[in-house]
Amino acid sequence: MEEARMNVRYRVELSQTERAELTALVSGGRHAARELKRAQILLAADAGVSDDTIAASVGVGGSTVYRTKQRFVLGNLAAALSEQPRPGAGRKLSGKEEALLVATACSKPPAGRARWTLELLAGELIRLTEHASVSRETVRRRLAENDLKPWRKDMWCIPQVDGEYVARMEDVLDLYAEAPDPKRPVVCFDESPAQLIGEVRQPIPAEPGQLERYDCEYKRNGTTNLFIFLDVHRPWRKVKVTDSRTAVDFATCMRELTDVHFAKAERIRIVLDNLSTHSAGAFYQAFAPCEARRVLRRLEFHYVPKHASWLNMVEIEIGVLRSQCLDRRIATRECLVAEIAAWERQRNASGARIKWMFTTAKARAKMGRAYPEPAAVREPQTKSHNHCAAVLVHCSHGRSPLQVLSLLPDRSRW
Fold this sequence. Notes:
Layout lengths: L1 H5 L9 H12 L5 H14 L4 H8 L3 H13 L2 H5 L13 H11 L12 H11 L7 H10 L17 H15 L8 E14 L18 E14 L5 E6 L4 H15 L6 E5 L8 H6 L2 H8 L2 E5 L10 H13 L6 H17 L10 H7 L20 H10 L4 H7 L7
Parallel strand pairs: 1-4, 4-5
Antiparallel strand pairs: 1-2, 2-3
Helix pairs in contact: 2-3, 3-4, 3-5, 4-5, 7-17, 7-18, 8-9, 14-15
């Protein structure tokens, strides 16, 4: 019967529009491999190429060529390119069992185990349901559909976005957006530690066919501190190497900024973080009161919100410094100073600047829901009807996965 059907010849004649669409499909973009092959089959058939030649050149069987031409002639171009439903077994886990899997993956792992694995979850499902077996692949696919990876966890800092956070963020963003003013420059400041690491054995230089090789052992020669300044509106940065980062070091570095690097500026606006040494009191620890007051009159501090160092533009510059200059072993302080100075000269001479794109308007658009609501417009929160959200809420309240399962409605698939 199949051979009798294969004896029917289908002739493919593409319109100009269809031919252009198929040509664009095979010439660029990301598409499914089967879809590309069907497009190649139709183009070749339209050009009068025989089925055997098409099958050999495209790398498919003769039946694939036949079915593709048949779908086009009896249907249309979309039918010929689309993927037909394939027979196969139904989903092994019901909707409630899948919810149970999600709840289990989001709960604490068994005693003695640091995290859930696919094998542990499969075994737990067998214990909690009537299934005689659950494969590792079934668990993996259901977790992937719910974007869950219980064997992984991420550590990060969750800032408290309150009125103070928003006020400081918008203050810094408005500074970045201002027009350049030589009399009132905006300078970002931060500090970063640097280790001095020496070689125990001399590295072997690279040669054709062989990478540079260095010994895994190394020698610690102490640490230093880097004070980094970055002009927001000019291609200028300055890195100062110090032995420590005390309040006196901070004040001394700031006086050098006012008296040497920006001697003609009336007032220097500094963007910095909330480290305890970054305060006006540091100047009175370092200098006499009159000198401390003189320096402070020319400085204006703008602090980024707590846990929001990403708002300090100099953080990007520190990343560039580490990747371009410090990503190696440097043994002595003298060598570190010389290498950083060379990097600094090259980068300033090249006119490199940080292109800051985040503005106050974008912050309000992207983070609007995180902004604190004024008391006058605050509304009571509505309950969510999302089942997966309900699963996670119940789990967070200490209920077991089986208790969560009993609370869910009887639906075969969500």
